[in-house]
Structures are given as C-alpha cells and as structure tokens.
Write a structure and sequence with these properties.
The complex is a heterodimer of chains A (about 500) and B (about 100). Chain A contains 22 helices and eleven strands. By secondary structure, chain A is α/β, with parallel strands linked by helices. Chain A folds into two domains: about 350 residues, TIM Barrel (Alpha-Beta Barrel); about 60 residues, no CATH class. In chain A, the strands form two sheets. Chain A has an eight-stranded parallel barrel with strand order 1-2-5-6-7-8-9-10, surrounded by six helices. In chain A, a hairpin with a 4-residue loop joins strand 3 and strand 4. The N and C termini of chain A lie far apart (about 50 Å). Chain B is an alpha+beta fold and about 100 residues long. Helices cover about 50% and strands about 20% of the residues of chain B. Chain B is built from two helices and four strands. A four-stranded antiparallel beta sheet of chain B has the order 2-1-4-3. In chain B, a hairpin with a 2-residue loop joins strand 1 and strand 2. In chain B, helix 1 packs antiparallel against helix 2. Chain B is globular, with a radius of gyration of 15 Å. The chains are: A alpha/beta (about 500), B alpha+beta (about 100). At the A-B interface, helix 8, helix 19, helix 20 and helix 22 of A face strand 1 and strand 2 of B.
C-alpha cells in the first residue's frame, strides 16, 4: 500500500461523507459534545457529599440513565470506602439486568488496508511495517469454520479497515459467507449465529445494505470525544478527521433500521473522566432522538502496536485502578447497557474487573489477518493492529468463569426474536431480559460443553448448569421450566439452536 | 431529466409509504384480535437472521412464540395461535400477502 492515496482511493474518500446525514441530527448546528461544558460539570461536582452519592446510587439501581452532573459527581469521588461501595453497586446492577451470565465472542479481522492515518493506530496508512491484506471470501469461510467448528464460537465481531476494497458491498458479502458456514461437531453442528461489525461510519444507504444481510450490532468507537484531541490525532484531510460524521454514525444506523448500536472510547488518548462523560452524552443523545440507547459500551485501553511511538508518549495512560473506576461509573451511568471487556487486557485485570459490570468478553482471540486458519500461535506485530494482553483459549476462560460462578452464554436469540431497539430497552430496564439471558445461557452452554469442552472444563461447567437449572425451577413458572427441560434434552440428543 | 439516484430515492420513498400503510393496518387488526380474543400477534421483518418487530401487539412471554413465515420479507408471530379463529388468521395472512404482491 502506498503512503499517498491513489486516484481511486481519493475518489472514494471524497464520495463517502454526506453532510445532509450529519446536520439533520445536530441542534443549532452544534453536536452534543460541549467540551467546555463537560469540564465545567466535572469541576463543579467535586467533593460530592455522601447523601448525594446515595441518591445517585438509588437512581442507578432503578436502571435509570444518569444526568451528566450525577456522573460527574461519581467521577469525582475520592474516598476509597465510597469507591468500594460503588464497585459493589456496579456488581449488583449487572446481576439485576443480566444475571450472572457472560456472553463470549471472537473478533475476526478481514482486512487491514486503511485510508486513514490515526496517530495511535498500528494500521495507519503511513505505517510501512504492517503487511497489508484483505481476505477473500474463501479465506473468510476458512476463518469462520475454525471459529464455529473447532473453537465453538457463535458470535463474532468482524473488523475491517476503512478502504474502498472493504466497502459496504464487500462487508455484506463477507457477512453472508460467515452466516452460510455450517460445520459438523462432536454432537451437533457449529454455526456463527450473530455477526456484529466494527466498521467505519457509513451512509444510511450503506447501512441499509448491511441491515438487509442481517448484521447484529453496528459498533463504532468515537476514539476520543474531545474535539481538540480528535483533531490532533486524526490528520486533516483524512476521512476519519470528520468528527461529526463519526459521532452521528449510530444515529444513521438507527435510521437505517439497524437498531442495535455500540459505542466506545479508546482510553489513553485524553483524560479518562472526560471520555466517560462523552460516552454518557452519546448514550443520552441516542435515547433522546430514538428512544434507544447503546446496546453495548466498550472502553478499550491503548495497547502497544508496531512502529507506533504515540502510544508510549501519551500523557493520558489509564492506570489499573482508574480502569476499574471507569467500568463502575459506566455501569452506574448507563445501567441497562452491555459492557465489553476484551483480550487487550491481561488475564489478571480481566479477573479483577469482570464482576463490576462486564457482560461480554472474547477468548481464543486472534487479531492477525487470517490468523485463525493459519493457526499461528505467537502474536505477530506486523499483522496486528495492536498486541493482546490475554491469549488464553476459550476453554480456559470458560473454565475460569465457571469456577468464579459465572455461566458462559452463547446466546444470540435476542435479535432473532425482535428483542432489539426500544423493545430490549424496556426488557433490560425491568429486569425481564435477565430471565431470557439465563434460559438461553443454559441451552447454549449445554451445546458448547457437549461439542467443545475439555474434560476439566466440562466438569466445572456441569456444576454451574446444575445450579442454574435448580434456580430456574425455583424462580420461574412451571411451564417455562418444563419447556426449558424439553429443549435441554433435545440439545443433549444433538439438536442445536433452540432458544427462548 | 432525473438522475438514477433521485429515481432510487423516489422509489424508496414510495415503498416506505406503502410499508407504513401495512404497519398501520396490521396494528389495527392486531389490536382487534387482542381485544376480542386476548391473543398477542405481531409482524416481523426478516433481514437474514435479524427479525425486527415492526407492528402489532408484541408480548415478551418467556415461552417461545410460533413464527409463521408469509414470504422472504415478513413473518407473523404469536404465542396464542390457538386462541385466534381461523378466518381471522387468514385475514392477517392475506393482509401481508396482498401488500407484498
């Protein structure tokens, strides 16, 4: 790939952004992030008294989105005992909304060609040490066969660079290819049942194309919500330098009928308290304009990448202690949302922060292009966007989760049953979704244990299943319990993909 | 002379207007069925594996509902099919089928 854009790339870049698909969502020509206002709120809510914190906690426990001043107060807590209380509440909220299930997924990188030049990214255009590649559909199929047939994943997040060779048409083709994969397993068959995408901002028309092939969640991170920092890190003239085109991409997705959208910030680019406020404002604007908040929020920390000195030079590195606070404050601020912790983080951190609000995590993760079917085991800087902190297998992670009392869920039922958008918002706020989560976690965990588990993991998993089924028997109506048992037996007999 | 983009835009607008009509009419029938037969019935639009609720009275019962596919684009869903009279079911299916033809 050349450091300078080719004519074809330049023409494509010029055709992407549509101003009319930005301004329609803005108010008086302004976007919803007011940098000065955020800083003022952070400054005027310092030293919050205990009664105010108690009131905020109560509101979070009622699964209501917080006001900016309330989140600012939480971010300003200094007392360690109060932080301890916040961590406990975060844990309680997660249980209330999602119960004790953790959904697992895997990333699948389909290409690393990119027209952008973001200072912090290993895949930036001018980074000559990266080997550039775009997977063909046969290669995609092979990747999906390993993921679905050997590891046992049912849910992917598919990742693409922003480039004409990985445009909406290519993305749609890859998704169809992945959904078509069906692999015989020990007791049944493996299939990818939900393909989420992490892709660049798109027009409404392109998003409709992706909706039509049945994408799960549309995930785009703003990276940093701070306008000045965004401008500095995304060089002028690049496609990604347009702050508002990115900021309103979820609005366009909702307009296009993709009603599961995911937001995130890359922590380490700017002040972490500011970024948490940015995420809250983002969630609130989606709620205000569409009645639908983010399906998930992500909070990745900057990790080392090949030939990317910015990462070592940043002044905004987030400590482990602050990382825990970020997770807890997001959990309290947007209590209904799913929260994703990835294998960027080392196992020890994942173990520590998982209980305070995480709902999804990845495992057996490989982020090199074509890495699953290549079966390489080491990390290779020149084919990865960044370096992973945790390369454990799905089997190991599931065993650890089981030992911690969590049930791993491969559930993908929600978006196949119309439980999306504003409907799932209601179910999450009322705690009803937690019931669906538990039922589907039991069924999909049964499938995975029968098809893929090592003997040790199977033993740990059986104990969790026994406890979960007992709990369902005690708490849910008899007819629901009986239906669960019927499905459970059918799965044991080799049927797959039964769900509530 | 209109360019291709504006023709596509007009076609989409026309399609969306008629889809709204279908949803409105479906809402009326679903409400009648709910009132008269105490049965929930809703319409979903099928996008690959994604099934999006688009109209009708949806009930998020813990028991899995039964999905009846009308065509590649739409399906009608209920947990209470046994409470809906045959002629009413046919009226609903025809409504969706006629819209698609």
């Amino acid at each position: 790939m050349l450091a300078v854009l080719t004519k074809k790339e330049r023409d494509w870049v010029e055709s992407v952004i549509k101003d009319e698909e930005i301004v329609k969502y803005m108010e008086n020509g302004r976007d919803f992030i007011d940098d000065d206002d955020i800083w003022e709120r952070l400054q005027r809510n310092t030293k919050p008294d205990k009664n105010r914190i108690r009131d905020i906690i109560q509101k979070s426990l009622e699964i209501q989105t917080l006001e900016p001043d309330e989140t600012a107060s939480l971010l300003n807590i200094e007392d360690p005992d109060t932080w301890h209380e916040i961590f406990q509440v975060a844990k309680e909220i997660k249980r209330k909304v999602y119960d004790n299930r953790i959904v697992t997924f895997a990333p699948l990188y389909c290409g690393d060609l990119c027209v952008n030049n973001c200072l912090y990214c290993g895949f930036r255009r001018e980074n000559v040490v990266i080997k550039r590649r775009r997977l063909g559909l046969d290669e995609i199929r092979k990747e999906a066969e390993v993921l679905a047939g050997e590891i046992g994943h049912k849910r992917l997040i598919v990742v693409y660079g922003e480039h004409p060779s990985t445009d909406a048409g290519y993305i749609a083709d890859t998704i169809r290819t992945i959904y078509d994969v069906k692999v015989k397993t020990k007791n049944g068959y493996g299939q990818i049942r939900r393909v989420n995408v992490n892709i660049a901002p798109m027009s409404v028309d392109d998003l409709r194309l992706l909706r039509d092939v049945g994408i799960g969640t549309y995930q785009v991170f703003q990276e940093t919500y701070h306008h000045g920092t965004y401008k500095r890190l995304h060089p002028e003239g690049t496609l990604k330098s347009h702050y508002q085109w990115r900021l309103y991409c979820h609005h366009r997705a909702l307009e296009a009928g993709v009603d599961d959208v995911a937001i995130g910030a890359l922590f380490g680019l700017y002040d972490w308290r500011f970024e948490v406020m940015g995420l809250l404002y983002h969630a609130r604007d989606l709620e205000r304009q569409f009645g639908i908040g983010p399906h998930t929020i992500s909070f990745p920390r900057l990790e080392p990448a090949a030939n990317t000195p910015f990462i070592q030079a940043t002044n905004y590195r987030v400590s482990d202690e602050d990382f825990k606070k970020i997770i807890a404050v997001i959990r309290l601020s947007v209590p209904y949302t799913g929260m994703i912790l990835t294998a960027r983080e080392p196992a020890s951190i994942r173990r520590e922060v998982l209980p305070i609000g995480i709902t999804q995590t990845d495992a057996s993760t490989k982020i090199g292009i074509g890495a699953y079917s290549d079966r390489y085991t080491d990390q290779e800087e020149d084919r990865q966007q960044f370096l992973l902190g945790d390369t454990r297998s799905l089997d190991e992670v599931i065993r650890e989760l089981a030992q911690m009392g969590y049930i791993t869920s491969f559930c993908t039922a929600g978006y196949r049953c119309g439980r999306t958008g504003d409907r799932i918002m209601t179910l999450l706020r009322t705690g009803r979704e937690a019931v669906f989560c538990k039922l589907n976690a039991v069924l999909t965990f049964r499938e995975w244990l029968d098809d893929f588990a090592s003997p040790e993991t199977k033993a740990a998993g059986e104990q969790v299943l026994k406890k979960e089924i007992e709990e369902i028997k005690d708490k849910l109506p008899q007819n629901v319990y009986e239906k669960l048992l019927e499905y459970y037996r059918r799965i044991e007999d080799g049927e797959r993909d039964l769900y509530f | 002379m209109k360019n291709c983009l504006s023709i596509t835009g007009e076609l989409r607008m026309a399609r969306e207007t008629s889809t709204s009509e279908l949803f409105e009419r479906f809402n009326v029938v679903a409400k009648e069925i709910k009132d008269e037969h105490n049965a929930h019935l809703w319409l979903i639009e099928v996008f690959g594996k994604r099934h999006s609720y688009v109209a009708g009275c949806k009930e998020d019962s813990f028991l899995p509902p039964e999905v009846i596919y009308i065509n590649k684009r739409f399906a009608v869903v209920s947990s209470d099919w046994d409470r809906i009279p045959l002629e009413k079911k046919e009226e609903v299916f025809s409504l969706v089928r006629d819209f698609c033809n």
